[in-house]
Amino acid sequence: MIDDFARVIDKGVVLKRLLIARYIPVVEQLAIQLKDKNNIRQVYTTWDKSRTKEYEGRKLVGFSMEQIFDVVADVADYKNFLPFCKKSDVIVKKDDFLKANLVIGFPPLNESYVSHVTMIYPQLVKAECKDGKLFNHLNTLWIFTPGLKNNPQTCVIDFSLSFEFKSWLHSHLSNLVFNEIVRQMENAFIDEARRRYGKPCIKTVRLEG
């Protein structure tokens, strides 16, 4: 089992340096604990408490609401700039709704699911996982509001993420890299806005509350 993890990590996938230091000790510890059948229930109970992961963040950025909305709503292009997204095919598209087949991949997971995306231009993008085998739920919400007064080229991004793996093993492993995954996701959208629209008019500022 450890060899399988090492082979996946050794393919040059994202988070290689982070995962190679952390996954193997976790798997080794799990293997030791499961040798004693009396520990199985204890291991499950302990890990099951943290299966749902949630995040909320707020940032002031140097791009307009319309620009950031267009980046986040461009689901078809996720595979080209969003970490861990290996495939993003839009299968239904309307003015305020789309449905897409997504494939995410980061060690040791590689799973497809259907995302239902609701959009209110240029204020909101909400995505919900449907028909997935990997998650009990996966929901993201982006809300865009005006930024600095008298500067329409700024906006405030409120981003929230909530997910729960069906597998308690995947849940525990995700705890090790959750913060890094969220950080890379947030940065990817800002970086893509910079690529499309040029240098932001102000530096990104993380806001409280």
Automatic annotation (TrEMBL):
<dbReference type="Pfam" id="PF03364">
    <property type="entry name" value="Polyketide_cyc"/>
</dbReference>
<protein>
    <recommendedName>
        <fullName>Coenzyme Q-binding protein COQ10 START domain-containing protein</fullName>
    </recommendedName>
</protein>
<dbReference type="GO" id="GO:0048039">
    <property type="term" value="F:ubiquinone binding"/>
</dbReference>
<comment type="similarity">
    <text>Belongs to the COQ10 family.</text>
</comment>
<comment type="function">
    <text>Required for the function of coenzyme Q in the respiratory chain. May serve as a chaperone or may be involved in the transport of Q6 from its site of synthesis to the catalytic sites of the respiratory complexes.</text>
</comment>
<dbReference type="InterPro" id="IPR005031">
    <property type="entry name" value="COQ10_START"/>
</dbReference>
<dbReference type="GO" id="GO:0005739">
    <property type="term" value="C:mitochondrion"/>
</dbReference>
<dbReference type="InterPro" id="IPR023393">
    <property type="entry name" value="START-like_dom_sf"/>
</dbReference>
<comment type="subunit">
    <text>Interacts with coenzyme Q.</text>
</comment>
<dbReference type="InterPro" id="IPR044996">
    <property type="entry name" value="COQ10-like"/>
</dbReference>
<feature type="domain" description="Coenzyme Q-binding protein COQ10 START">
    <location>
        <begin position="61"/>
        <end position="189"/>
    </location>
</feature>
<dbReference type="GO" id="GO:0045333">
    <property type="term" value="P:cellular respiration"/>
</dbReference>
